[in-house]
Write a structure and sequence with these properties.
By secondary structure, the chain is mostly helical. The protein contains 15 helices and no strands. It folds into 2 domains: 9-185, Growth Hormone, Chain: A (Up-down Bundle), CATH 1.20.1250.20; 202-407, Growth Hormone, Chain: A (Up-down Bundle). 77% of the residues lie in helices and 0% in strands. Helix 2 packs parallel to helix 5 (97-125), helix 8 (207-220) runs antiparallel to helix 12 (299-330) and helix 8 (207-220) packs antiparallel against helix 14. The radius of gyration is 21 Å and the shape is globular.
Length: 410
């Protein structure tokens, strides 16, 4: 795929995704400092509020997916994106913990619903053979948007004032609203009627798919290595300089932007996607081992080990993401892509809720045994994906309707 995709739905999705990611980068960079320094919340209140919001956000996935299946995903995606743009400025009115919990919960619910609807929109607006490639491209675009937004907000933080914080928040809101408007440039996707007699919530009866969503959630815990485990490990257990954390983040950003599309090739069918997630488990195990070995070493050895571990981690991350897209689309019936995306996304949201506490306790607290435990869990999850995928494929013709893979010409 070229730097700018061909005109049509993919280009429209690209512009909308870039603008939304830019807004997200602006907000995330300043949000914690705004809540702490301007609103006056404590660290514990911020953490508790975000945890409550993440838990409530779990409830958005399945309804948003089902609604996308009923009325078409474009309108649902636009509505949730616009809702986020209208809710984010309400942070400016927050003056205490209770108000913060209400607003952050509503914003998180809207963002979770938007993510599910957007995944369903890609599934409906993009030909089946191109879905994984497009998701990979959009993830690279998202990384660019986050980075640019984060850099802009980081520069603004130099002034450390409430007006600057509010400017970043309102900038995020405008980006969300602009992204919603750009969504109208994506062709509408007509809902696919379900067969007579089929259950409404068919995904809740699809046991192998639920197991795959769980395994993907385990592999998705790798996200916490970059955002939680490595920064705390560098600061508390290694002699590496503090700038190493920023360098590791840069390795991740650049690698995702450059290699996500390339490493997603061959994952547009269930078997290829399962192999990618199996390889992801291997890379993540090796990353955990190398990152653990950075402790107790001279500074230069620690830096080398951390950089090597970061590179292995991002390769595992890329393969995990590519495999997740292939499996979540290929095993979903055409009339229920939305609810299937909703369930798959719920697993990742659960992972986001449990990872901070678990990684802080197990990796930072236990040291080498904790790293090895996580590495073993990643490996076990990756190895389990191919056999569960074969189980899922065997059930497609019996209990479930034909998948897009079964239906398209060969």
């Amino acid at each position: 795929m070229s730097l700018l995709p061909e005109s049509g739905p993919v280009r429209a999705l690209t512009y909308a995704t870039l603008l939304r990611a830019l807004g997200r980068g602006l907000f995330v960079t300043v949000s914690v400092l705004f809540f702490k320094l301007s609103v006056g919340l404590s660290d514990g209140e911020i953490g508790l509020g975000m945890t409550i919001a993440a838990a409530v956000g779990l409830a958005a996935g399945l309804p948003a997916g089902r609604l996308s299946d009923l009325v078409g995903p474009r309108g649902v995606q636009i509505a949730f994106s616009a809702a986020g743009g209208l809710l984010v400025p309400v942070y400016a009115l927050v003056s205490g913990f209770a108000g913060f919990v209400v607003v952050v919960t509503l914003v998180t619910f809207a963002e979770a619903g938007e993510g599910t609807a957007r995944a369903a929109l890609v599934g409906g607006a993009v030909p089946a053979a191109d879905r994984v490639r497009v998701r990979a491209y959009l993830r690279a675009v998202t990384n660019v948007g986050w980075s640019v937004g984060g850099l802009g907000a980081g520069a603004a933080l130099h002034f450390d004032s409430r007006p600057v914080y509010l400017g970043m928040i309102f900038g995020c809101a405008l980006c969300y609203l602009g992204s919603a408007l750009l969504g109208f440039r994506v062709p509408a996707v007509a809902p696919v009627p379900r067969k007579a007699g089929e259950p409404v919530w068919i995904v809740l009866r699809d046991r192998p798919y639920a197991v795959l969503a769980l395994l993907n959630a385990v592999l998705f815990m790798q996200n916490g290595l970059l955002t939680i485990a490595i920064p705390l490990w560098v600061a508390g257990r290694t002699s590496a300089p503090a700038w190493t954390v920023a360098a590791v983040a840069m390795i991740n950003t650049v690698t995702v932007t450059v290699l996500q599309v390339r490493l997603s090739r061959g994952t547009d069918d269930a078997a290829g996607a399962a192999r990618a997630q199996r390889r992801s488990g291997v890379f993540l195990l090796l990353a955990c081992v190398l990152l653990a070995l950075a402790a107790g070493q001279p500074a230069w050895v620690a830096v080398v080990a951390l950089f090597g571990g970061a590179l292995l981690h991002v390769l595992g991350e890329l393969l995990q993401a590519a495999g997740s897209w292939g499996l979540s689309y290929e095993l979903a019936p055409p009339h229920a892509i939305g609810q299937y995306q909703g369930l798959y996304g719920m697993g990742q949201q659960v992972s986001n809720i449990v990872v901070p506490a678990v990684m802080t306790t197990v990796i930072v607290g236990w040291g080498l045994p904790g790293w090895l435990l996580f590495g073993g869990v990643f490996l076990a999850a990756g190895l389990a994906v191919p056999p569960v995928t074969r189980w899922a494929e065997r059930t497609r013709g019996a209990a479930l309707p034909l998948t897009t893979a079964d239906a398209r010409p060969r």
